[in-house]
Amino acid sequence: MKSYRLYLFDFDYTLVNSEAAILKCFHITLEKTGLPPRSDDEIRRTIGLPMLDAIKRIIHSSDDALARRFLAVYKKEADRYMTAGTYFYPDTVGTLQTLRAHGAKIGIISSKTRSRIEETFQGDSAGLVDRIIGSEDVAAHKPDPEGIKKALDWFAVPASETLYTGDSYVDAGAAQNAGVDFAAVTTGTTGTETFQSYPHVAILPRLSGLLP
Fold first, then answer.
1. What are the record's GO terms for cellular component (predicted)?
2. Strand (E) or helix (H) holding 20
3. For residues 149 and 167, is the Cβ–Cβ distance under 8 A?
4. How many domains would you assign to the chain?
5. Which of 22, 121, 139, 204 could form a disulfide with 209 if both were Cys (CB 3.0 to 4.6 A apart)?
6. Would strands 16-17 and 87-88 be described as parallel, antiparallel, or unpaired?
């Protein structure tokens, strides 16, 4: 692939696999709130969406107050299980290290909270990311381009020299709306056929395919 000055990434299902922890937290919260159980597949399909949107799909309700009460319970479970149950994909750290060695800047644009993402980048992975823009840093979530545009402003890199990589159709939409190149990774729940309907420079089975 061609080289870029700035590489922006989604987090869940792109850099890390936190599926087991997310499923656990949702199942526990559904039980604690007295709501009907949902299948793993139904929950998986919401990973990467803004949290309140994901909750509303899982609880089958558009009631904002109900979703926020659910979120309050979910957060307590996430504090217990999320970071411990989040793992880098085998090629994530090496890919980020190589991109940085080539002089690129690295950022993350995610619907997850910045503070939760920061907990993952500790120890040997500390310093691999220059900027994290999480859910608390934007007013509008993907596919709105706000997060990507904030990153472009912060890094002072033009859209033409930026690549955004993600696993979901909402990532593809955000890249399209921001006017940056997009590379898809098929490590999430969005398939190749869906990605082909969006502008893209690559559809990859793994992150290391980004390397020049």
1. cytosol
2. helix 19-32
3. no
4. 2
5. 204
6. antiparallel
Q: Are residues 55 and 135 in the same domain?
A: no
With CA atoms as reference, report the closest residue to 23 among 78, 64, 103. Answer: 78
- Calculate ∠ Cα 146-62-198, nearest 5°: 40
State the 10-residue block means of pLDDT for the chain, 212 residues long.
96 96 97 97 92 96 97 96 96 96 97 93 89 95 97 98 97 98 96 97 97 88
Residues 125 and 67 in one domain: no
Indicate whether 126 and 102 sit together in one domain: yes
Taking phi first (over 0 means left), then psi (-120 to 50 degrees means alpha), and beta for anything else, what does residue 168 get? beta
State pLDDT tens for residues 127-185.
Answer: 999 999 999 999 999 999 999 999 999 999 999 999 999 999 999 999 999 999 999 99
Helix 51-59 to helix 19-32 angle (10° resolution) is 50
